[in-house]
Amino acid sequence: MKNTHVDKDRRTLEAIGHIYCAAHHEGEKDAAGLCPDCRSTIDATLQRATDCPFGHEHNCQDCTVHCQRGEAQERILEIMRYAAPRMMYKHPIMAAGYLRKKLRSKE
Ligand SMILES: [Zn+2]
Prior knowledge:
65% of the residues lie in helices and 0% in strands. It has one domain (4-104). The N and C termini lie far apart (33 Å). The chain has helices at 4-24, 36-51, 71-90, 92-104. It is mainly alpha-helical. It contains four helices and no strands. Bound molecules: zinc ion. Zinc ion (ZN) is lined by residues 21, 25, 34-35, 37-38.
């Protein structure tokens, strides 16, 4: 089954990861501009979203499974905290809905 929520999240996360990774990490980058560390963080985050029994429809903060917890979540939040203000400037339409939902739940 195609999960369009995750497809959209993947594009958003890769754009966010590219901003963060370009500023923090040297060395080899993949086609999306991510180093292996950032790529694995994003893939782990997306994998949890794919596994979400609720189809990733709801705010994960309200989710009873808490599939976004763990090391990858810590790292993706660090990436988002850095990249979110820059993302709003570079990709305001793509960033708006996704980041508002994700970051609000962490305040
Ligand atoms: Zn990186």
